[in-house]
Design a protein that fits this description.
about 350 residues; 16-stranded antiparallel β-barrel; 4 helices; alpha+beta; Porin
């Protein structure tokens, strides 16, 4: 009896060992490899999620030299650093700092639940005109923006005395309809701003309102109409702007033109202003781009001939490598009698390094 029990015990051990061996052989090596791959994919997915939430750093430096009239000088035009990213899906942010004149230029949150509806809150570009929003300094073909944009849309020489590089503090609803090949055929923007410039509290109880409608019927073609109404300062001076533009930018050709007008209030009363420009450029071989522009602006339409300035600009843009732009511009500036300034020629060279 003991003999049979011993044989049964040995056979049981043998069966267990054989079963375990067969199980190992059945799960190796393909099952083991699949398990390892699954673990690696899980780790990679977790890492990708972490990386996707990390901020993206970018920036650029613009420096050059200008000679015109009785003066010449080297200059630093812009030194910018940007931080952007997603907090959660559909909620993104951007922060941009200017070092030449230390100030915060962009700081906003944008929630995009639908293609047709986005909400942006903070400080950013006013959705007014094509060049102010669609052609940042790292894309713009010339060194200086047109006169009407500088005088009427919150740039350094704005007639309201507001230096804001086309930006304001406020909130914007925007969106697009009828998607076609990566573009929206119809787009809109509706904004409410303080109207006092960047990093500035409102000085009255009134709020400025901006509305823009954009049409992109075919690839490369943009038609835009903008309206701005507001009151600035403690005296509630009027600030009204309206503009329309057309741009074709596709392949080797860019042609763009805009008209911008407005009425501005001041201690000396209310006056009207307007101006327009026409720009054309050709993306030639070897990353060269010759550009020409005619630019005119009348500071007071009641005395148009006396307060008018006409600029004729010829430029050449060269991008030898991806992150470097080299520009040279020649501008002939012709002034009306009210400026008490003789016509002059200005030559400027500027280099833009981006990262």
């Amino acid at each position: 009896m003991k003999k049979y029990l011993f044989l049964f015990f040995l056979s049981s051990i043998f069966c267990r060992v054989a079963t375990a061996r067969n199980h190992v052989e059945a799960s190796s090596p393909s099952d083991t490899l699949a398990a390892r791959v699954a673990v690696l994919e899980a780790r990679t997915s977790t890492w990708d999620k972490i990386v996707s939430r990390l901020p993206e750093f970018s920036g650029y430096v613009q420096a050059g030299y200008q000679y015109g009239g009785e003066a010449s000088s080297f200059f630093l035009k812009r030194v910018r650093l940007s931080i952007a990213g997603d907090i959660v899906p559909k909620l993104d942010y951007k922060i941009q700092f200017e070092f030449c004149k230390p100030q915060l230029v962009d700081a906003y949150l944008q929630y995009s639940p639908f293609r047709q509806l986005k909400l942006k809150v903070g400080q950013y570009k006013i959705p007014f005109s094509i060049e102010n929003t669609d052609y940042p300094p790292t894309r713009f073909e010339l060194i200086e923006y047109p006169l009407a944009l500088c005088k009427l849309v919150g740039f350094g020489s704005d007639l309201c005395g507001i230096s804001a590089s086309g930006r304001e503090l406020g909130a914007t609803l925007s969106g697009g309809f009828f998607p076609r090949q990566g573009r929206n055929v119809v787009g809109y923007d509706f904004s409410v701003f303080n109207g006092e410039g960047i990093n500035t509290w409102d000085k009255n109880k009134s709020k400025d309102v901006v509305a823009r409608l954009s049409l992109r019927p075919v690839d490369g073609l943009l038609l835009s109409g903008s309206y701005y109404w507001g009151e600035y300062g403690a005296s509630y001076f009027k600030r009204e702007r309206y503009g329309a533009g057309i741009c074709y930018d596709r392949g080797a050709v860019v042609v763009r033109g805009e008209w911008i007008g407005g009425r501005t209030g001041s201690d000396h009363g209310e006056f009207g202003s307007d101006g327009w420009y026409l720009l054309a450029g050709w993306r030639a071989p070897y990353n060269l781009m010759p550009v020409v522009r005619f630019d005119t602006f009348a500071e007071n339409t009641s005395a148009r001939s006396a307060t008018r300035q006409d600029n004729y600009t010829v430029g050449l843009l060269w991008a030898p490598v991806k992150h470097l732009r080299c520009q040279i511009n020649y501008t002939y500036e012709n002034y009306g009698p009210a400026f008490d300034t003789a016509a002059r020629s200005v030559v400027a060279v500027m280099f833009t390094g981006m990262f």
